From TrEMBL:
Lineage: Bacteria, Candidatus Buchananiibacteriota
UniProt source species: Candidatus Buchananbacteria bacterium RIFCSPHIGHO2_01_FULL_39_14
Listed name of the protein: Glycosyl transferase family 1 domain-containing protein
One annotated GO molecular function: glycosyltransferase activity
Domain Glycosyl transferase family stretches: 191-366
Spans traversing the lipid bilayer: 82-101
Alphabetized Pfam families for the sequence: Glycos_transf_1
Keyword annotations from UniProtKB, A to Z: Membrane, Transmembrane, Transmembrane helix
InterPro entries listed in its UniProt record: Glyco_trans_1
Source organism, top-level taxon: Bacteria
Length: 388
């Protein structure tokens, strides 16, 4: 089976979706599929002349086809949304030309995360798979084209439930959350050795967070972490927080925020690193945090890569008690906190800091379930669904 994975993204990218797309492409190809990843030729000065396969440290088991597409970077400073709208128009034009002259597309499968491409793809093929990461606001526009989509892969049960309400058949929808590279993140490294590599204090309880600090302009919980640290700072002096993965503008913004809360002396905000260094960082931590706020996106749509990486790291996790999180985590593998409640977050941090056995038990349970969430397992599940 030939799969065309079509994604309107720039690769490499510092954002998590790039890694997710590359890992899924690799895993589907490893499962025996002939896969071609089609992307636009978008510019990114931060990754000039960097090969996506090298950046994401994955095997070159599939082909990447970059379509020549005008990238209107000169309008990046214009009102929000205009750049992506113009860029998408140019990519759709390039993709249309490519598919017109591409042979045997009707015998292939079109796989995409981009709902905006569904109308175009339905012209060229009946075998379309839409991987749904969020439901767009304008579902009425998409509804006529959803009947032409052969199958849907969704990240959460909440997304599936909402699609069924819209009239889609249950057997057309597979719930398949995100996953983790166990070879990279499943390492077992001595904590002191990991801290040496990262030059982190050995006499502190290290609280860790990985990934960007915002998504879709929304805070991902760092402000609540700062509030909790402010509460805890009056009680103890053995805590140190490190947030690894911030973009330059995010680091500047959140450094000022930390100063406002009076906790800038017990935090460190760091830029993204490659996957292997990220895995070592997680081994250096005592507690891993992801206190997402309660919004529609975080509550029902997300399946964060960091959640599965945290599980594989065998470190105790503190996460928000949200429907999307509860699909994967329970009180055996994490401590769940009320979203937006800094006092509850502070209490949970102190519980783990004061109870080493509780922390160790949670870490062991987390590690045990991580094996069910590898990219290979996800690819097999999706492959069997496509063939069914």
């Amino acid at each position: 089976m030939k799969i065309f994975y079509i994604a309107n993204v720039r690769l490499p990218t510092e954002k998590a979706h790039g890694r997710q797309i590359m890992k899924m492409s690799e895993s589907l190809a490893k499962a025996g599929e002939d896969l071609e990843l089609i992307i636009p030729s978008r510019r990114n000065p931060n990754f000039k002349n960097i090969n996506p396969f090298d950046y994401y440290q994955i095997n070159q088991t599939f082909k990447i086809k970059r379509l020549k597409s005008f990238d209107p970077v000169f309008i990046l400073g214009w009102p929000a949304g205009l750049y992506i709208k113009f860029q998408t128009i140019f990519f759709v034009l390039s993709l249309t030309i490519y598919l017109i002259f591409k042979k045997d597309t009707r015998k292939s499968v079109f796989y995409t995360r981009d709902e905006i491409l569904l109308p175009l793809l339905s012209i060229f093929n009946k075998k379309i798979v839409w991987e749904v990461h969020a439901l767009p606001k304008k579902m009425k526009f998409l509804k006529p084209f959803l009947s032409r989509v052969e199958k849907l892969v969704v990240l959460t049960q909440s997304i599936k439930d909402r699609l069924i309400v819209l009239g889609l058949a249950e057997n057309k929808i597979l719930v398949s959350p995100d996953a983790v590279d166990l070879e990279i993140f499943g390492i077992n490294l001595d904590k002191s050795q990991a801290r040496e590599q990262w030059q982190l204090p050995k006499d502190k309880i290290i609280l860790g967070y990985t990934g960007t600090y915002q998504t879709k302009g929304m805070d991902k919980g760092l402000s609540d972490i700062f509030k909790a640290l402010k509460i805890l700072k009056t009680k103890r002096s053995d805590l140190f927080f490190v947030a690894l993965g911030g973009l330059p503008n995010e680091i500047i913004k959140y450094q000022k925020l930390a100063e406002g809360f009076g906790v800038s002396d017990i935090i460190s905000l760091l830029s993204p690193v490659d996957q292997k260094k990220l895995a070592v960082f997680q081994q250096a931590c005592d507690i891993l945090l992801m206190p997402f706020p309660e919004t529609t996106h975080f509550s029902f749509y997300m399946s964060p890569l960091k959640m599965f990486e945290y599980l594989a790291a065998a470190r105790p996790i503190i996460a928000s008690d949200l429907p999307s999180i509860r699909e994967i985590l329970d009180n055996k593998v994490a401590l769940l906190v009320k979203p937006g409640d800094a006092n509850d977050l502070a209490e949970k941090i102190e519980s783990l800091a004061n109870q080493p056995k509780l922390a160790a038990d949670i870490a062991v349970s987390a590690k045990a379930i991580s094996v069910h969430y590898s990219w290979e397992e996800r690819a097999k599940k999706i492959y069997n669904f496509l063939c069914g």
